[in-house]
Amino acid sequence: MTHYKGKGERITVPIWCAGATDGVHKVIVDTGIRDLEEYKKAEPGVSQTPAQITTAAIKRIMGWDPEEVEIVINTHLHCDHSGSNKEFKNAKFFVQKKEWEAAFNPLVPEAPFYDKLCYDKSAVNYFQWNFLEGDTEILPGLRVITTPGHTRGHQSAMFDTKDGVVCVSGDICNVAENVNGNLEPNIVVMVPETYESFQRIRQFAHYILPGHEPAIEDGSEKFIPVL
User: What keywords are assigned to this protein (predicted)?
Assistant: First the structure.
């Protein structure tokens, strides 16, 4: 999780999705894994309770059924962030065009993390997709910003809340220490861009929900300050 620090230290990391609403729209960022047994082929130590399945967690925490979700933002299309896309049949999906293209033509180091069954036409109808080219306002108080480095087309979601701007970072920051300590995450395909993305997050966000931060609690509305 922190490329230059803590080598050999074993930690248990979650796979986070986020739900948000302005009282009208129902939005989620990332959708978790597709199938537990399938994901074990890549990550043998993974575990998931029935309550942690993406659709069950959204119902438990947000009170929403899958068909109620209107907007899905994929920070990127790795299989632990797009795995349950198929469950949201009525949603509009937002992803960077560059990420979509990379997911179907991955570089050799990226290939194990892309699973086409998470985002191809069997999972998401083509007309549900909205392909973005750069920073974009999705709704008033909700924007995505490009944060390449972990993948070529990575983006992060920025929510304007009463307490300040919350960045749901995806995996440009696996843990808060990446951005606050200026430490690369464990998988990087673009090194200079990674550090530029950290700077963008520090520039815009007051708080962060990283993609795999152990200090965040299930269902919590408390996030980690960006220093």
Answer: Hydrolase, Metal-binding, Zinc
